[in-house]
Amino acid sequence: MKWYEEKFVLRRDWILDHLELIGLNSEEAIVALMIDFMNQHNMNITMEDLAHKVNMDAKKVDQAISSLCARRYLQIQAAGGSVRFDLSGLYETDTAKSERVLDSKLFDLFEEEFHRPLSQMEMTKISEWNRTTDRKLVIYALREASAYHSLSINYIDKILRSWKEKGVSAKMIEEGKVL
């Protein structure tokens, strides 16, 4: 399964968070977000419905779709009398690959340590840490929380924020420079 197909990945949040990197203008963004919404809710997508839902004239929607298709962010496939709008290309861009969007081993490590499946909120927070924080530092924070029998996302977040304020790095922890 691809990272963006995981149940805990909020694709529309990812699009909004990476608008400047993937280079969508406002019209392309709203059309992409609506297509993702309609796909998630198994709604039939027609140009008329799409134009109505995003409150744009059909010509502007067509231009946005053409642009998304030209950049290979969107594929439109006709099969069995229905049309499928596939945004996989948007999530498979070099931007998405270079962003550390998902590290399933990190989620597995948290689930193993917590002795339970993670909630949507917990997975979202871990995904955020994975993008913004050294992976080793996240693991060290998990270990510290475990050592103090305080296994919660909020506690781990406090550890990571404290370390960030103090300028603590994974290398410093490995060298024993941090108590």
Count of beta strands: 2
Output mean pLDDT.
Answer: 84
- Unreliable stretches: none
SSE pattern, N- to C-terminal: HHHHHEEHHHHHHH
Radius of gyration: 20 Å
Count of separate DSSP helical elements: 12
Stated plainly, the CATH topology of the largest domain is called Arc Repressor Mutant, subunit A
Beta-strand percentage? Answer: 5-15%
Strand order of the largest sheet: 1-2
What is the SS-derived class?
mainly alpha
Relevant CATH superfamily of the largest domain: Winged helix-like DNA-binding domain superfamily/Winged helix DNA-binding domain
Number of domains: 2
CATH architecture of the largest domain: Orthogonal Bundle
State the helical fraction.
55-70%
CATH class of the largest domain: Mainly Alpha
Tell me briefly what this model is.
With 179 residues, this protein is mainly alpha-helical. Helices cover 63% and strands 6% of the residues. The protein contains twelve helices and two strands.
Task: Describe the SSE topology.
Elements: H1 11-17, H2 19-22, H3 26-40, H4 47-54, H5 58-70, E1 75-79, E2 82-86, H6 88-91, H7 94-98, H8 104-114, H9 120-132, H10 135-147, H11 153-166, H12 170-174
Antiparallel strand pairs: 1-2
Helix pairs in contact: 1-3, 3-5, 4-5, 8-10, 10-11
